[in-house]
UniProtKB/TrEMBL annotation:
It comes from the Bacteria. InterPro entries: Tnp_ISXO2-like, Transposase_Zn_ribbon. It comes from Lachnoclostridium phytofermentans (strain ATCC 700394 / DSM 18823 / ISDg). Transmembrane segments: none annotated. It holds the Pfam family DDE_Tnp_IS1595. This is ISXO2-like transposase domain-containing protein. The lineage of its organism: Bacteria, Bacillati, Bacillota, Clostridia, Lachnospirales. Residues 155-314 form the ISXO2-like transposase domain.
Amino acid sequence: MPDIKDVFTLYTQLSPQEQKKLYSMISYQLPIDNDFEQFVKDERFTSGFVCPHCGCIGHISRNGHIYKTDKDGNKTIDKQRYVCKDCGKSFTVLSNSVASGTRKNLSIWESFTKCMLNGFSVRKSANICGIHRNTAFAWRHKLLDALQQPAEKTRLDGIIEADETFFRVSYKGNHKRSSFKIPREARKRGGLAHKRGLSKEQVCVPCAIDRKGHSYGKIASLGRIATKNLHAVYDGKICSESTLCTDKMNAYVRFAKSKNIQLIQLKSGKEKKGIYNIQRINNYHTKLKKFMDKFNGVATKYLNNYLVWHTWFDLKGHTQLEKADLLLAKAMTSILSFHFRQLSMRPSIPLNI
């Protein structure tokens, strides 16, 4: 019987394309622990139990069990129930989490996170994981909603490069709402904006990245950005004593002065002043646009989620499997109340101010 060395020898004889295909096939079949409740408990309550309703720490006690009934009418213990002594509400380990209400086991969620980190479409992810495409779409935004919480804790320091990029406003996903009326003339998907240059037909996304590779970006405004929009996006994200490198946009002058941080402004993306440049942020924008292009137009109301997705897609220093484990663990620690029926009812343009 061939051993692992023989298998590896055969693997090295494959072409690079065949090696990549084999790796993809194996990675989706790796056996993992399917105890979903224990996984969430280990990730979510490492420092003790926290009430998912009010955030109380420590004042938690057991409160019976949730039972499940089989086809023969026999009852067995399904989940442990807890109660918060502060707010009086009961909960389980999965309450108000990404896994709340799920009927799929942990291995399927693990496979789905791998699909996300490969940038697969909803339909391709659904086929790989054996779930419906609507479920895949809901899971995508469940995970991304949960990842917004750790993303908001991002702190940039040292030399920080900042610039804006623009996306055409897309009203995809709003037309089934009876009260929604598109505020402009309809156009074919992928078509040009009706107005040339910067206009309110484009949404502005300020992005910043430091020399450690930490990045942050969020929808700020329609059309040209103002100082108040920069404050809405970057307040609490840029550490004091940092150096901000930007283009010649006047809004950054007022922003840097109000935050008391050093500002280095450059005429163009290729200009350098010693160690200062904005080539990293320009490269970040190039990769972001390439990532977005594969989805053939992202609805503006979901754009912030896709910005977080790209951050994980572009994460350095980890293998795909490590990133998948880290993504799922981070998502499970977030307190999240998600209702699929409310997903399409989100504001068509989610502005910060």
